Every structure is written in C-alpha cells, then in structure tokens.
Amino acid sequence: MKNTNSLALLLLAIGLGSLVSVLGYSAYAATSYVQSTNWNRRYSNQWTMGGWQRWSQQLQTSPTTPIMLDQAKQIAQQYLASTGNSNLAIKEIMEFQYNFYINYYEKDTGIGAFEMLIWKQSPPNGMYGGGGGMGGGMMGSYGTIGTVVPEPGPNMMWNTKYSPMGQGGMMGNWNQPNTSGTTITKDQATQNAQTYLNSNFKNAEVEMATQFYGYYTFDFTVNGNIAGMLSVNAYTGQVWYHSWHGNFIQEVEFD
After folding, report:
1. How many CB atoms neighbour CB 85 within 10 A?
2. Each residue of 184-235: pLDDT tens digit?
3. pLDDT of residue 252
4. Which residue from 61, 88, 212, 222 puts its CA 20 to 30 A from 199's CA?
C-alpha cells in the first residue's frame, strides 16, 4: 500500500511539473510574439537589418516547396501589413529565375520607398558582384528560400531614407556625398544607364524608371524583351547592374 501511494505521488509530481513547463513555454511564446509585433510597429516607417531578419524567419517555407507568383504576392502583402505604414503600397512584383522582386512606394509622393526580394532558390556564389562589389560579402548568407529580404546593392547602400546604411549609419557615406536633394536628374540617370547598357549588352534599351531616395532603378530590354534591372546613383551617377536576378519570367503591376 505504501509503495502504491509513493508511486501515485511521484506520478502526480511529474504531471504537475509537465503542466508548469507547458504553461511557462506558452507564456514565453506569447511574450515573444507580442515583442515581435511591437517591434514591427515601432519601425513602421523604415526597415532595418534586424527587422527584416526577424520578420522573415516567420515566413520561411520548406526549401523543397516551389515559390509561385501567388505565394510571392501573399508574402509581399503580409510584409507590407507588418510595417504598419499606411502610406506604403506595392507598385509591382517581377518574377525572375532566382527570385521575386517587389517594389514598395509612398502613396503621397509616388517616390519609391525600398526594394525587396523573395528567393526562389539559393543565389549562386558571386552573384552580387554587379556594379558595387560590397554587396556579395554582406548578403551572401541571406539567400534563405521563401523569405522576404531587402534587395542588395543600391537598395541597401544608396537608399537615403529607408536603409540604415544610407542614413549616415554603417555605410551612410559609402560612395555618396553627404548632401540633401538629388544632383542627377532622371534624364541624366537615363543617359548613364543607356551608356552602361551600350557597353555591356547588345541591343539593350532603358525602359521604365522608378525614383528612390538617393537613386533611380531602371528596367531594361534586350531585343524588345525585359532582360534585367540596373540603378543609377542620384549623387554620383554611378551605375549598378542587378546581377542577382537571372532571366526574367513575368511581372504583375498593382493599382
């Protein structure tokens, strides 16, 4: 009888201990979710390295699952909602061989805010070389499939409003004078972009341009078909080719 009672007490203690552990984990998970949500609201007007990294972990999908356009739309819209900034909207989503490109803009000004990617497959080594060199070392480990991340290159280095690297932060003065306003007009930027294409692509033509804070981003065609993207620094006129996309597949524009 004594042994039976001892066993019963032991089982009761184990059960209570398990219950406390479960409740403790639930409270921790709930607190972590609230902290993450509050963090996103706090940084509603701009993304930062920690912000997109933390949020993208919530959207990670299985690497074996193909990322389709409809799914990319959903992820892009979820990210937009997470910013808490009602002045931001999606301008377009372009599907390329390696990723989906998302253009976010400001409703009141019409100016581009920032550019994001959703990787369809891990980017090949050396893909970030493009026109700036530094992008490869910084973004090489951020090619997680199915997550939304800031586009490397101009979006991170030259964006003077939404990127912490372009606001006098870690890379704020990289290849860009500390001045207000732009010194390169859209027409001048277009000429610079076309000059670069003439030297590097056959039968290439500059197409649609989007003005961002500190730079312009252009689509371009080869033989009349969309072939890729490049950006021009609004202060220096430097051209940066987006070497991380691969072949163009399709695009969808938003009203």
Report:
1. 18
2. 999 999 999 999 999 999 999 999 899 999 999 999 999 999 999 999 999 9
3. 94
4. 212
Q: Kindly report the CA angle at 80 between 165 and 229, in degrees rounded to 5?
A: 60
pLDDT number for residue 3: 52
Least confident of 51-65, 83-97, 222-236: 51-65
φ, ψ for residue 185, nearest 5 deg: -75, 170
Location of structure tokens 């056959």: 202
Q: How far apart are CA 247 and CA 241, in angstroms?
A: 14
Q: Hey, where are the domains in the chain? A: 49-253
C-alpha dihedral, 119 to 122 to 126 to 132, nearest 10°: 20
By the 8 A CB rule, do 206 and 216 touch?
Answer: no
CA-to-CA dists, residue 25 to 19, 34, 196, angstroms:
10, 14, 56
| CA within 13 Å, CB half, 9 | 6
Q: Specify burial of residue 157 (Cβ count, 10 A radius: 0-12, 13-18, 19+).
A: buried
92-109 burial, b at 16+ Cβ within 10 Å, e below that, comes to bbbbbebbbbbbbbbeee
